[in-house]
Amino acid sequence: MTRHSLYSTLVLSLVSFCSIAQNPDNVIYAEGKIVNALTKEPVNARITYQSLPYGSRIGVINNSTYSFPMFDNEKYAIVVEATGFSTVKYLLDPSSADSANKVIKDVELSSEGESKHAIGQVMRLDNLIFEVGKSKIDPESYSELDVLVDMMVENPKMVIQLEGHTDYLGEAKVNYKLSQSRVESVRDYIANKGITRSRIKTKAFGGTQPLSRENTPEAHRLNRRVEVRILQN
Questions:
Q1: How far apart are CA 101 and CA 120, in angstroms?
Q2: Record's superkingdom (predicted)?
Q3: Could you report the per-residue pLDDT of 98-113, keeping only the tens digit for each?
Q4: Cis peptide before 69 (omega within 30 of 0)
Q5: What is the pTM of this model?
Q6: CATH number at residue 18
Q7: What are phi and psi of 14, to 5 degrees?
Q8: Bridge partners of 104?
């Protein structure tokens, strides 16, 4: 191989390496738009994000859109702030990425003083994890529960109902008891953060209200959930 050919090969290798390093196929990106909840028009906001649980990766974006890489399969918390609008917080999980390796979360901002959480609204705690067959909360779930705590602090009149569900496998009585003990564990966590217990109702459904009847591990995992219903705000 001539010196020129060797040089050309090294240059091409370097370019290829840089391309791979900058655009790895396995990197997941969080992306979204910030809009006015009423008009659906773009809103320039300050988007702060940090990796969980330790916040080792943080960043700030000032725009009406955001995009950032989610490295090492870590979850990220984002806080969206804009003048004249109520601050909102979300938890982004890389496991919810689509086929294009993107976690898409558009954010709607409500004007300050305007209710963001309508009575009857139901939110699923997608990142709430318990030990198998038990009601002990996995520490990885604390960040999502803290978002719920913050929401109740920011809305002091809010009353919620925690609704526990299991899959439909096994004995109905056992499933009901498990779903009840799990929502009680969540209630205890929230109360220990300073939220009055009278603002936290609980209801257990066992496996009577599955989201899916498919007999697959994914469907059973989807059915095992805790949901938050807004009773008063």
A1: 33
A2: Bacteria
A3: 889 999 999 888 876 6
A4: no
A5: 0.56
A6: 2.60.40.10
A7: -65, -45
A8: 31
How many other C-beta atoms are found inside a 10 Å radius of the C-beta of residue 183? 24
Whether residue 94 is preceded by a cis peptide bond, meaning omega within 30 degrees of 0, is: no
Give the CATH number of the domain where residue 222 resides: 3.30.1330.60
Domain that holds residue 230: 117-233
* Closest alpha carbon to 134 in 168, 206, 182, 167: 182
Over residues 142-155, the pLDDT tens digits come to: 988 998 999 899 88
Provide the token pair at 108: 């709607």
What is the rounded distance in angstroms from the CA atom of residue 85 to the CA atom of residue 117? 14
Tell me how far apart the alpha carbons of residues 63 and 218 are, in angstroms, rounded to a whole number: 36
How far the first Cα of the chain sits from its last, in Å, is 76
Domain count of the fold of the chain: 2
Quote the distance between the C-alpha of residue 210 and its chain's center.
21
Do residue 191 and residue 210 come from a single domain?
yes
Tell me which residue of 209, 211, 227 sits closest to 219, measured CA to CA.
Answer: 211
What are 182's two structure tokens?
């799990």
Only one residue has tokens 């109740």, namely 152
